[in-house]
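Inverse folding, one chain.
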């Protein structure tokens, strides 16, 4: 069954119920949300009664909470070894794992981080140190999904090799998965018209079963541009046909597909894009 949804908002007053309601208006059967603003770390207390109510609403609308994705804020940067920033990121991620558990979800998508001039090798080393330290003490059972990045600036995780190196260094490997992002893969230099080959490469290096989420985005830029600017489905350089091939891939059929395409004239494009995708899949 196609499991598709989009990024949705999360507001303090409506909590998770508001996020679920938004997803339903798009005809989605999953969604992704931030537990607060993505660019800051201000987080309100979670109202557990509202979470229960939201779970009920999800059940009534065919949304499986085990397929719902939480995205960690961008400002967590485990790759930066500067002590105060490193400590801050580790502490925030630890707290975020507890919040994901309180929401009753299973997966947290994380940008591996940016090495900010220290080099990829040191960046990867810092990420491994952070993940081991966090998971050592963590009592949740949340899986952290490392997102494949476009390679903008000093981003780490711009190819499967870097993602693999991180996983190899983590002790609790069962707590780590991967989120692939089509725009990021394109911008990182992967030619998505050869998606089967890309998947075979991923399987050999990391294992296909590690893929727990796919971000479906078109790209405003050409392959290998390292830009990371998402485009609406079918309107970018990847194109509808290639995106549909990826969505249709049998080996990834149980993996939730999440749209993170840009708003058009202030309106969310997700209802239309989900309809378009549904009309094209087998
Ligand atoms: Fe992301
Ligand atoms: Fe993404
Ligand atoms: Zn992106």
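Residues assigned per position:
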């Amino acid at each position: 069954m196609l499991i598709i949804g989009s990024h949705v908002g999360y507001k303090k007053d409506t909590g998770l119920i508001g996020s679920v309601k938004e997803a339903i208006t798009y005809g989605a059967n999953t969604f992704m949300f931030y537990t607060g603003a993505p660019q800051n770390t201000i987080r309100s207390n979670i109202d557990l009664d509202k979470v229960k109510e939201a779970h009920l609403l999800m059940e009534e609308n065919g949304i499986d909470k085990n397929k719902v994705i939480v995205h960690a804020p961008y400002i967590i940067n485990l790759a930066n070894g500067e002590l105060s920033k490193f400590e801050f990121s580790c502490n925030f991620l630890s707290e975020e794992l507890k919040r994901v558990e309180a929401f009753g979800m299973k997966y947290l998508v994380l940008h591996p981080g940016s090495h900010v001039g220290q080099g990829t090798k040191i960046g990867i080393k810092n990420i491994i140190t952070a993940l081991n330290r966090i998971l050592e003490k963590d009592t949740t059972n949340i899986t952290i999904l490392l997102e494949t990045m476009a390679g903008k600036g000093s981003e780490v995780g711009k190819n499967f090799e870097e993602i693999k190196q991180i996983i190899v260094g983590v002790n609790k490997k069962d707590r780590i998965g991967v989120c692939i992002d089509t725009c990021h893969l394109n911008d990182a230099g992967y030619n998505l018209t050869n998606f089967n080959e890309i998947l075979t490469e991923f399987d050999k290096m990391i294992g296909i079963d590690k893929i727990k989420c796919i971000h479906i985005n078109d790209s405003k830029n050409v392959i290998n541009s390292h830009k990371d600017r998402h485009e609406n489905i079918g309107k970018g350089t990847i194109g509808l046909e290639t995106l549909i091939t990826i969505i249709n891939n049998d080996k990834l059929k149980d993996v939730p597909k999440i749209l993170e395409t840009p708003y058009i004239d202030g309106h969310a494009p997700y209802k239309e894009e989900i309809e378009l995708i549904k009309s094209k899949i087998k």
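Residues 83-102 form the longest helix (20 residues). The chain is about 40% helix and 15% strand.
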